[in-house]
User: Which sequence fits this backbone?
C-alpha cells in the first residue's frame, strides 16, 4: 500500500482546507490511516487517525473540534477536513497507513508514508 497526499496550500487564519490521502493497493481491514505533521523540536505528531473498520478514531488535543477525518472506501481515500486554522497548524502533513496501536494510529516505524503536503496558515 502506498499513500499519496493532496490538498495542501496557503490559507488565512480562520480558513479551511481539505486534505486527501489516496492509497494504492488493498488495505487490510485491521489497518488504520493517519495524518501526522512535523513539529519543530519535537517528534512527528499524530493529528488524526481512523481505523479501516470504522471502529475508532483519534484526534490530537490541539485539533479537537476543528478537524474531522472521514473515508471513502470505494475510492480508497481518507479526507482530513481542517477548519478554523491557526498559524500553529502550519506544517507538512503526512498520510500514513499501517497496523495500529492503542491510539488507533499507525505505528510510525512500521507504516507506509506518503511524501507529505504543505499547509501554510498566514495572518
Assistant:
Amino acid at each position: 500500500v502506498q499513500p499519496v497526499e493532496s490538498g495542501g496550500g496557503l490559507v488565512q487564519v480562520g480558513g479551511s482546507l481539505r486534505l486527501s490521502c489516496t492509497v494504492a493497493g488493498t488495505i487490510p481491514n485491521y489497518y488504520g490511516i493517519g495524518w501526522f505533521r512535523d513539529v519543530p523540536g519535537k517528534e512527528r505528531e499524530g493529528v488524526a487517525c481512523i481505523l479501516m473498520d470504522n471502529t475508532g478514531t483519534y484526534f490530537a488535543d490541539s485539533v479537537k473540534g476543528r478537524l474531522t477525518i472521514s473515508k471513502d472506501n470505494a475510492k480508497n481515500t481518507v479526507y482530513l477536513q481542517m477548519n478554523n486554522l491557526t498559524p500553529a497548524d502550519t506544517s507538512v502533513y503526512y498520510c500514513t497507513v499501517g497496523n495500529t496501536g492503542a491510539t488507533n494510529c499507525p505505528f510510525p516505524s512500521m507504516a507506509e508514508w506518503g511524501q507529505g503536503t504543505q499547509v501554510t496558515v498566514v495572518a
In short: The chain has a mean pLDDT of 95.
